Amino acid sequence: MTDPSFTTTFTVDQTPRQAFDAISNVRGWWSEQVDGGTANAGDEFTYRYRDVHHCTMRVTEAIPGRKISWLVLENYFDEVEDTTEWVGTTIHFEITEDDGRTQVTFTHRGLVPEYECFENCSTAWSFYVNSSLRDLITTGKGQPNDKEVSATQAG
Question: Where are the alpha helices (DSSP H) in the chain?
């Protein structure tokens, strides 16, 4: 039986360490609206996208050049009945090297087709991982969500 969790994979010419460093730079590929550490086991960070989605993650594993894993501690979606669908799910980035190329496999274990958010979430992850993260690894510039500026900050 195969795991129905969302998974996607891409390959780049950069080193496993370059891939690891880019993945750890969550602000560089997912969102500039991230607070907290994102690179070391035990770090916790909060992601926010407007009032639509916010979550808190704990980095549970960080092995440079090999893997990074996160546990979803808290989650909120505004567009689904069960706003906590991600709570308790895990996100894994596996990094392998083959014939001088680096493969990154992303799995959101627990994000399954039965979830109301599955279609939107898998589409979003596909963009952030296969486009934005890949761009950050290969060019040094990802496509993260911009940091929101509050009305008081805007002046």
Answer: 16-24, 26-29, 118-127, 134-139, 151-154
End-to-end CA distance of the chain: 56
- pLDDT tens digits for range 2-57: 788 999 999 999 999 999 999 999 999 999 999 999 999 999 999 998 888 999 99
**Each residue's pLDDT tens digit, 121-145:** 999 999 999 999 999 999 999 999 8
Beta carbons of 92 and 58 less than 8 angstroms apart: no
Can you read off the two tokens belonging to residue 16? 């496993």
User: Which residues on adjacent β-strands are paired with residue 105?
Assistant: 9, 94
Select from 3.40.50.300, 3.40.50.10800, 2.60.40.150, 3.30.530.20 the CATH code of 6-141.
3.30.530.20
5 closest CA partner among 142, 113, 152? 113
Q: Are 60 and 88 in contact (CB under 8 A)?
A: no
Against a cut of 0.85, is the pTM above it?
yes
